[in-house]
Each structure stands twice: as C-alpha cells, then as structure tokens.
Design brief:
With 317 residues, the protein is α/β, with parallel strands linked by helices. The chain folds into two domains: 8-165, 3-Layer(aba) Sandwich (Rossmann fold); 177-264, Conserved Hypothetical Protein Ylqf, Chain: A, domain 2. It has eleven helices and seven strands. It has helices spanning 8-20, 44-48, 65-76, 94-104, 127-138, 177-186, 196-210, 212-219, 229-239, 251-264, 275-305, and strands at 26-32, 53-58, 81-85, 115-121, 142-143, 153-158, 161-165. Helix 3 (65-76) links the parallel strand 2 (53-58) and strand 3. The longest helix has 31 residues, at 275-305. Bound molecules: guanosine-5',3'-tetraphosphate. Guanosine-5',3'-tetraphosphate (G4P) binds next to helix 5.
Length: 317
C-alpha cells in the first residue's frame, strides 16, 4: 500500500537517538499490543547499537489477551530483551518499568551509576499518556540539559533513574505490506496518507477470518462467511445508516465507522497479528524487496553499459 508521510521528522528523531545512545543503558520500545510486530521499528536495533531492550506492549486493554501472551513470550525469548504488557488503567507503572530495566542492566543503579533509559515508539502508541502517568505519580522533574537535543526531554523517575523521551517516529519505508494496513488501522499514520476504504477492507478481511464472532455481534451481520469484504463494508454502512442517495452506501463513512470501532475497542479485544503470522509476512516482504532491488540494480547496470543514444550491444555485450 502506498503510504506517504513527511520524513523530516524522522530524520530529526534518528539524530536525537544517535546523539544520546552512547550514554544509554536500556532502550524501551513502546509497541501497540494489537500489532506488536508492525509497530516495532525495524531500524531500532541498528539505531541503538543493540542495547538491551524493554518491549512494552501498550494498550493491552484493547488487545486480545490470548495473543498478548505469545507475543510477550516471543520477545522474552530474544537475547538482552524483556517484555511487559501495560495499559493506561495502570496508575503506577513506574515500578514494573524500573524493575525490568534493572534486570536488563544490573550493573547500573545508585547515584554514581544512575540508570539511563531511552523511550521510543510510533505516533499514537500512548507514549505521552504513559510519561504523564510516570511524571504524575513520581512527581518527576522534566527539563533541558546542556547538550541534549531540544526534541528530547529528560524525566527523573527516581534519583538514580533517568528517562529520555524521543518524538513518535515512523520509518520511511514499510517493507511488510500488511504492516502498512495494520499501522493505518491502528491510527499510527495520519489519515491523509492512505485510502480509508482500502484499509477498512483489509481490516474487515482479517476480522472475518479471525474474529468473526465479534464482527457479527457488533454489526448484526448474518451469513458473514459467505460475504465478500466489500459486502461486509456495505452491510456495516447500511446497518449504521451511512447512505448516499438512491440507497447507495457511503463506503467512506462505513470505513470510518469500522476503523473507529476497532480503534476504540468497541468491537472487542482484537490483535491483528501473531508472532508466526508476522514472521511469515516479514519473510515475504523482504523477499519482494530483494527482488525489487535486484531489478533496480539490473536496470542501473543496463543504463551504465548503454549511455544515452547508444545500444547496449555497442559496449561489446
Ligand atoms: P503518543 O504520545 O504515543 O502519540 O500517544 P498518546 O499518549 O497521545 O495516546 C494516543 C491515544 O491513545 C490517546 O487517545 C490515549 O488516550 C490513548 N491511549 C494511550 N494509552 C492507552 C492505553 O493503554 N489504552 C487505551 N485504550 N488507550 C490508550 P485519544 O483518543 O487520541 O486522545 P484522548 O481522547 O484520550 O485525549
């Protein structure tokens, strides 16, 4: 799916991370528990020099609990990585975060060696909400420090525990097609960057296969299995009175309804990917990407061999 956004913001965030990372002990990545794989920054390990990582599966109240468990296991099985689930209903998340960071960097702690943590995440994943809760509960100070990029904010969670915030960031190219749809469905991507109908159709297709009961119950759909994704979208529009003239359904409105109900959790607790599914999508995406790159390279080589106006065979080939 063609999703376009302004990459300038991302370049600044990259710079902020690169400037700070040498003095960081643990990198917290906030993931959306409804799409952990798709909301994980594929460039993060490279950006952070493979520092120990805490994966926080946020908004777990909206995610399918039966899928959050396997995702936590998946991350906990990775070297130098821990994972916890979190949501905004937890009023004192600091203790769990601090404990997990100490487990990842046991050599840090105390005034002489304070724990230094960087927190990253895609837009809308709930980073501000979490930080506000942390700041509120710990009455932490925020402030600038000489040499720190203005985009960053240092939060003192305890006398020996500092957290640096980074702006919400998306990467420039999404290799996994399904991730583009899932990120858009979750609200991480500005609505002008994608076609809402297309995203809603993908979402409904997935829900039809994996959460048919929730879809049927919420939109009073009958015979869901026999409906195409387009027919499901139309039925939702009709059921909610999203109509144009002459009984035609306002598909744009129907798409908005379906997506809003997913985002708010009104549809139910849903997770759009399992670790196995995501691994398969990633492998397919990487293969396609490599094939595209090979074609591009071949074209570039062809152009080099045949400068303008000349036939490639003139080069002796
Ligand atoms: P960001 O800084 O990462 O961009 O995200 P932010 O905290 O602004 O949160 C984005 C939206 O997600 C907000 O909703 C926020 O209330 C909601 N949110 C954050 N954490 C959780 C969570 O754990 N569970 C649930 N269910 N929602 C969460 P909003 O509608 O955009 O704003 P508002 O109406 O809450 O102000």
């Amino acid at each position: 799916m063609a999703i376009q956004w302004f990459p300038g913001h991302m370049h600044l965030t990259r710079k902020a991370i690169a400037e700070r990372v040498a003095d960081i002990d643990v990198v917290i990545e906030l993931l959306d528990a409804r799409l952990p794989g798709s909301s994980a920054n594929p460039m993060l390990a490279e950006l952070t020099g493979h520092k120990p990582g805490l994966k926080v599966l946020n908004k777990q109240d909206l995610a399918d609990p039966e899928r959050t468990g396997p995702w936590l296991d998946h991350y906990n099985a990775q070297p130098s990585t821990r994972a916890i689930g979190l949501d905004a209903s937890q009023t004192t998340p600091a203790r769990r975060l601090i404990e997990a960071c100490h487990a990842l960097a046991p050599q840090r702690g105390g005034m002489a060696k304070p724990m230094r943590v960087l927190i990253c995440g895609i837009p809308n994943v709930g980073k501000s909400t979490l930080i506000n809760t942390l700041v509120g509960t710990r009455k932490a100070k925020t402030g600038d420090e000489a040499g720190i990029t203005k985009m960053e904010q240092r939060i003192v969670l305890a006398d020996d525990f500092y957290l640096w915030d980074t702006p919400g960031m998306l990467w420039p190219r999404i290799v996994v097609a399904q991730s583009g749809f899932n990120l858009a469905a979750s609200g991480a991507i500005g609505r002008n960057a994608y076609d809402e109908e297309l995203v809603a159709l993908e979402l409904l297709g997935y829900l039809k296969r994996h959460y048919a009961g929730l879809l049927e119950a919420r939109f009073k759909l009958e015979g869901l299995a026999s409906l195409s994704d387009e027919e499901v979208l139309e039925s939702i529009g009709r059921q909610r009175g999203a109509l144009l003239g002459k009984g035609r359904v306002n598909l744009q409105k129907a798409a908005e309804i379906a997506m809003n109900e997913f985002r708010s959790g009104t549809l139910g607790r849903i997770t759009l990917e399992t670790p196995e599914e995501f691994a398969a999508w990633l492998a397919a995406g990487q293969l396609l990407d490599a094939q595209r790159q090979a074609k591009k390279d071949a074209r570039a080589r062809g152009k080099k061999r045949a400068p303008s106006g000349e036939d490639a065979s003139a080069d002796g080939g």
